[in-house]
């Protein structure tokens, strides 16, 4: 039976940060409520975050914030043929601009390795470990979806040993070089449990100083702290997806700009006064229904405007139908009332 090496702080040959000329770093996630609850992410400490859709947003933001203090090493574990997780340039650019960094700089400060299957995982991890040893400026390591291949492994015990070996190697290196280590994974499919456990090995749970479940919400996520070194658990805090309000504001601005352009360059070309007047009425409707127009599921801004306009036209037609029916009824009553 294969036995993986469980890290033992007493047997690890540490080198002082002073000798390596490495400074201690603290990193905030950028989500105020979460930062107040768990504190900053600290050098040489391990953190485990798990969740669903919001976790991807969380990782993108953390990568950008990590680039503010140094380079970031990122190991992505993803099934290439299904549920592929990638770094999205638009998300990187969004958070980079918010942090006052040019997106191109982020790309220069992030180096990553990807594992698309169980067999590739150890090699990808080894390549990233070698790069970290070369890059003395590495301040943050993110092992994303590290247990991704356990559920489909032919031999789960062997696959678990492999994951633990990878975790052990990164933990020792990050401890020695005083690097923040963040591990992410998915929640287990435990519908009957209010707070599902992470799809994590015992070693991951043991080494993690803080463990947080990011439960998906419409507005962002609910962070549930299930392990922490100094606060009682479980502890809860609501955190918002910072893109929601900002994207809505951007759409509002674009809507105002689009309406102004239509008013200045399109409406004056309309021949019929009735058509020009109709535009002004629709403009009032768009103003009242701006929340619906900001719905990001619509492909384009004009799709939203057209949809709202059609709804308004439909409501106007329904009102006309009611009026015509009312007039017809009164005419019938008048006709029947005649001697």
Question: Treating each run of at least 4 consecutive H or I residues as one helix, how many helices?
Answer: 12
> How many strand segments?
10
Number of domains: 2
Task: Order the strands across the largest sheet as they lie in space.
Answer: 5-4-6-7-3-8-9-10
Rg from C-alpha positions?
Answer: 28 Å
- What is the CATH homology-level superfamily of the largest domain? P-loop containing nucleotide triphosphate hydrolases
Q: Would you list the SSEs in sequence order as H and E?
A: HEHEEHEHHEHEHEHEEEHHHH
Q: On the 0-100 scale, what is the average pLDDT?
A: 82
- Main structural class: alpha/beta
Describe the largest sheet. Answer: 8 strands, mixed
List the helices and strands and how they pair.
Elements: H1 17-20, E1 26-27, H2 32-38, E2 41-42, E3 46-51, H3 53-67, E4 71-77, H4 89-98, H5 103-109, E5 110-115, H6 118-134, E6 138-144, H7 156-177, E7 180-185, H8 202-207, E8 210-216, E9 220-227, E10 235-240, H9 242-266, H10 273-288, H11 290-293, H12 301-337
Provide an overview of this structure.
There is one protein chain. This protein is 50% helix and 17% strand. With 339 residues, it is of the alpha/beta class. It has two domains: 17-240, Rossmann fold; 245-337, no CATH class. The strands form two sheets. Strands 5-4-6-7-3-8-9-10 form an eight-stranded mixed sheet, sandwiched between helices.
Concise synopsis of the structure shown:
The protein has helices at 17-20, 32-38, 53-67, 89-98, 103-109, 118-134, 156-177, 202-207, 242-266, 273-288, 290-293, 301-337; strands spanning 26-27, 41-42, 46-51, 71-77, 110-115, 138-144, 180-185, 210-216, 220-227, 235-240.
């Amino acid at each position: 039976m294969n036995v993986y090496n469980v890290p033992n702080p007493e047997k690890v040959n540490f080198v002082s940060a002073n000798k390596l000329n490495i400074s201690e770093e603290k990193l905030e996630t950028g989500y105020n409520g979460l930062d107040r609850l768990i504190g900053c992410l600290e050098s040489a400490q391990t953190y485990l975050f798990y969740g669903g859709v919001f976790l991807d947003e969380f990782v993108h933001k953390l990568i950008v914030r990590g680039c503010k203090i140094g380079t970031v090493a990122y190991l992505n574990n993803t099934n290439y043929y299904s549920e592929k997780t990638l770094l999205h340039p638009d998300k990187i650019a969004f958070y980079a601009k918010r942090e006052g960094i040019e997106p191109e700089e982020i790309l220069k400060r992030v180096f990553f390795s990807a594992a698309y299957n169980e067999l590739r995982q150890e090699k990808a991890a080894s390549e990233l470990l070698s790069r970290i040893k070369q890059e003395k400026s590495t301040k943050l390591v993110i092992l994303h979806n590290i247990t991704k291949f356990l559920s489909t492994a032919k031999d789960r015990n062997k696959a678990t040993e492999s994951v633990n070996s990878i975790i052990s190697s990164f933990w020792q290196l990050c401890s020695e070089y005083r690097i923040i280590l963040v591990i992410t994974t998915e929640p287990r499919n435990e519908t009957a449990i209010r707070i599902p456990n992470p799809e994590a090995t015992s070693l991951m749970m043991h080494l993690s100083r803080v463990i947080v479940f990011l439960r998906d919400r419409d507005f962002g996520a609910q962070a549930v702290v299930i392990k922490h070194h100094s606060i009682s658990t479980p502890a809860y805090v609501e955190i918002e997806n910072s893109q929601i309000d900002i994207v809505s504001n951007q759409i509002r601005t674009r809507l105002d700009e689009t309406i102004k352009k239509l008013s200045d360059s399109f409406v004056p070309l309309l021949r019929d006064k009735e058509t020009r007047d109709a535009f002004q009425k629709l403009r009032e409707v768009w103003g009242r229904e701006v929340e619906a127009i900001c719905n990001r599921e619509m492909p384009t801004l004009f799709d939203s405007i057209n949809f709202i306009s059609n709804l308004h036209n439909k409501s106007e037609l329904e009102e006309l139908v009611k009026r015509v029916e009312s007039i017809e009824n009164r005419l019938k009553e008048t006709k029947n009332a005649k001697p």
